[in-house]
Write the structure tokens for this entry.
Amino acid sequence: MEKVGLYPGCSLKGSSREYGESVVALARVLGLPLEEIKDWNCCGASSAHAVSKELSLALPARVLSLAAAQGYKELLVPCAACFSRLKTTQHTLMGDDERRKKIEDIIGAEVGGVKILSVMEWLEKYAIDAIKEKMNHPIKARVACYYGCLLVRPSGVIKGDRVEDPQSLDNLVKLAGATPIDWAFKTECCGGGMSIAATETVGKLSAAVMEDATHRGAKAIVVACPMCHSNLDMRRPYINKNMEKATDVPVLYITQLLGMACGLTAEEVSVGRHFVNYKEEEICQK
Amino acid sequence: MDKLKAKLKEWLEAGEITLAIGYKQGTREARPFFCRTAEDVEQMVFSNDFQPNLAVYLSKKEVVKDEKVAIVCTISALRSIAYLARENQIGQSQYKIIHLSPNDELMIFRSPWDIDAYIEEIPSTPSEEDRRVIEMLDAMTPSERWAWWAAQFSKCIKCYACRAACPMCYCTRCIVDNNRPQWIDPWASPLSNMEWQINRVMHLAGRCVGCGACGAACPEGIPVHLLNRKILDNIEENFGMPAGIAPREGAVLNTYKPEDKENFIK
Amino acid sequence: MSKIGVFVCHCGENIGGTVDCEKVAQEAAKIPGVEVSTDYKYMCSDPGQTIIKNAIKEKGLDGVVVAACSPRMHESTFRAACSEACLNPYMCEIANIREHCSWVHEKGEATTQKALDLVRMQVEKVKKDLPLSTIKVPVTKKALVIGGGIAGIQAALDIANAGHKVILVEKEPSIGGHMAQLSETFPTLDCSQCILTPRMVEVAQHPNITLYTYAEVEGLEGFIGNFKARIRLKARSVDLEKCTGCGMCTTKCPTKKVPSEFNALMGLRTAIYVPSPQSVPNKPTIDKEHCVYYKTGKCKLCEKVCPTGAITFDAPDEIITEEVGAVVVCTGFDVAPTSEFSEYGYGRYKDVITGLQFERLASASGPTMGEIRRPSDGTVPKKIVFVACAGSRDAAKGRPYCSKICCMYTAKHAMLYQHKVHDGESYVFYMDIRAGGKNYDEFVRRAIEDDGVNYIRGRVARVYERDGKLIVKGVDTLLGGEQVEIEADMVVLATAGVANKGAEDLAQKLHISYDKYNFFAEAHPKLKPVETNTAGIFLAGACQSPKDIPDTVAAASGAAVKVAALFSKDQLLREPVVAVVNRMAPPVFSTCVGCSLCVDICPYSAITMENIKDRGGNVIKTVASINPGLCQGCGTCVAFCRSKSIDLQGFSNEEMYSSVMAALHE
Amino acid sequence: MDNKDFEPKIIAFVCNWCTYAGADLTGTSRMKYASNVRVVRFPCTGRIDFMLLLKAFAQGADGVIVSGCHPNDCHYTAGNFHARRRWIVLRGLMDFLGIDIRRIRFSWVSAGEGAKWAQLVNEHVETVRELGPYEDYKKAADYLKEGVYNG
């Protein structure tokens, strides 16, 4: 199996360390070759595209160019915001030779044609059999798979899952034994980047998401986006203010859930770093 | 090579073929060789770089009629056969098509249609020298190019060796033989020579495999094959059809895409 | 040596004011081969034409050039005049010295010189002209109508009533199409079946119409006036001759839970079934996919109960060939696939239905006998939401076009709902209301003003189920973009009209073109709306683009008139401007080498390869051959042919070459 | 060389349904344009043989116009699409041979674009006027008379 490059971006090294750690831990337990690319830089989210079109393309373009130059054919981008920026850049530059030449001039290198993978695409492509084989602690709970916006939109750029009713996370949690609930807020807004600027709004929007999930009996929310995670987890006090009944349903990264199903300990996938505690007995069947 | 010879001998002796068309060493270069006996086969030589494109004999009825033919093919000749089959000039399993791949593997194609899969991975490329001359011409101003070509065509004696060497030039009445109207002046002025070449390469547009046999055949050393090569480049650039690979659906000038791009029709 | 007459027209001052016509005539007389050259005030007038006719007769002219206005104006006039004087009309050419010369240049020597050059070009062309005669193609006066919806029914009846034979092919067991499924029709609210079923019966009984239901067109060969259609009569396992339609078999059939296509999958039917009580023919068909006998080899209950022994298990499909002179394609439309609307929960929530399904609910013959009831629990919905433009005008769904009928039928649905559920509340989410048509806008206003339907301008983002209700989240763009949330009992999607599943396949069989949505393409969007690019094949109805009933019927009658006009003569006359592949004496036969590349270049599939055989039937040579019935004379093949073996009559290589050379005469 | 008095000879190859009709419209609208152009009417751009364009130059034309229906408007559906491919290939080849491709102007003029036709002709007449007579081409044709090619 050829090595896949990993672009962690800032979140996976900072506020969402547990996501980064669980990606690496899961790759290890499933035997998937993964290597962090060298000398990477910020993808520009979430401010560059509001400031300068060129900057917003040049930053991700440099990352793509590095990955290609370092010999990777595929690049795993777990952070949904990074994924979105990289995909958008590739889409824009591939369709516009003039602009691509300009950006390549700025970064002093060719953008190259590395294939960008989201966590779901990476797992679907390489991990299905390994998960089936390694799974020894099936998840028994009903879970709500929450995609948010960046992993599916805009559909013309991402071109992956069904934009209005995505299925990739649902299929993955099923592999781990969990039951994904059919719910209506899969791709609704969590409040996104307003977490700091307008925390109250985030509380309201995220509450609607939590409300529908808990109403339908979800015992955990499964995400693949650091932003969604922060809002649903860290902003829980604000969310609870908007809920009829406060909730303590935890929010887990897909990599954490699959990791634990495949026998990794809670420590190995860093669930301890979350604000809302994860109660093993409610989710896993040991 | 031994495998190839052995196969041809086997066929000849078993009467499966009556004629094997291959190459024999000439004074300077390899030349076409028509073998009828196992002894003949011993003199046969082969390289994929040999210039005469033997596929040309397959569209010459006077050569292959009433014969059971095996043809020793360079990659270029294989390409030509694929095109000839598309243009209904060769039947399904009329000929034994035999080839030595660059890594010396003996290949026998039962049908011209089987060639596609092998050829598809190998686009036709020009020699370094040809590429150099094309780049030199591209770098010239149009009037310099005109002068260069006019000087070249002033040498032409209208012998039509370029036509005779080409497997795809199989029309029974060529446009130069058409005098109602007289499209091309029959005498050899630079312009009428050039008009002939424009006709030749336009008629080969999307059909030429880039073998260079036309240029190699010219007794005056006019590099007429560069015109074909330029068109191959042009077609690849504009229509994304790689050189020398017979397209599965239609040729270049008898098909179109509504989204074809140009920048000069205004 | 040619004897050519040149006739220069002054067109009053129109030409004469700028061009020295007299001088043009004098100079033209000096061109070799010109026998007579003269000018006159108005060449197109009677005396003008007489000058030409007399000159032809007196001087024995073998070619005429009229220097006058554009050939698009009077070419036919002057050619007719030549014809009257016994000169082949195609030996007459027009030099356009008005539109292309006198009207666009200043008076002067250069303009007169140009006029002379234009004359010279035509003189040289005439010298190369050959006498041509109109092409006559025999016509088989029988039409094939494909599709038995309202379009096909109308077209078939109109053609049949004009006195011609018609073969109507319908792929379903009954004719009627989508119109038979509708409840009531806008803008009059008359019952669809009441107006349609008499026509269905008329089709069945018409002496000029042969009806093949449960049949499909397998292939079409030939050309205008002379098509050969292969039709597959699918085995329906019931002998229509013997069957009396008594219905014993359908009552006894043990398989009773097959979703009914006629009821848009909302009701059930048996495996041996008649789609609806009004079906034509009103005789059953066995659905082999669900029949117990076809699945397990046992049962044959229907055979046992049939009083006439009409059940014919295991009969094979039959293929028949029909010769027809014209084809009308009326294959209709389909509604967009359900899988597209995951955001509206279609397919997941039973109470989210399509407009077509609502028609069945509202229909007196439908699964609920015309009562509006929820498919999930059979209760009457008290709050209902209609979503217009579900999949139409939506580039993200790959369908930027408007489905045209949805605005109207949604208004009708809301109205019907209000009429049937008096205490109900109805909402319509719409983008724009497109109610262009006679009494259409009035109809929508009635729904809003008289029946109190709540129209909300905005799109619906999502529909989801919660505690037995369908939560419809949308936006009201007229209220400053307020978000709207409605707890509905039922949601009706006005799903886009799309091309039929088999449309692409059929288009290829018929050699007609289609657009990227697989709707069949008309020959000209304005002036040839019912013709296709293939002569003799016509279109009607929603197979071309979504259409309502009045438009469909109008198009069907239009297509029928085209067919009747074609059938009004025993022979079809065509301009001889067609391409020909040369033929010559053996052993050459033709200079064509049979490369067959021209076959693909022809937009009309007029070129085929022909084998020239010796007396023993052995193929000597394969050459191209052009069907003059199909060729439209574009000449693309002519310019493409390397050996110049194809030429275009009227614009031949010699004619065009001579014109160009003459234009540059020193 | 000062070419301002030079009157170039221009041959226009046009299709019957769009450009010829467009040029008729120029006439009915009484728009004036240079009289240097001679129009040859073809049923379709697909019918225009590339050899005719070359023969025009050989016979002494200084410039050529080729025009037909806009893409998707062809009376015969696809003739102009085929012609477009033909011109793409031919133009590349002519340029490679050093034939002055500025002298050959390709355009789409619809039946409604009378003004565009007038403008097209005027522009091309001006372009060719500046380029001067196309002597090179004719010289190559006359080669035998002079015995030696002298560029």
Notes: Chain A has two domains: 4-119, 136-283. The first strand of chain A starts at residue 4 and ends at 6. The first helix of chain A runs from residue 17 to 30. The CA atoms of residues 143 and 218 of chain A lie 5 Å apart.
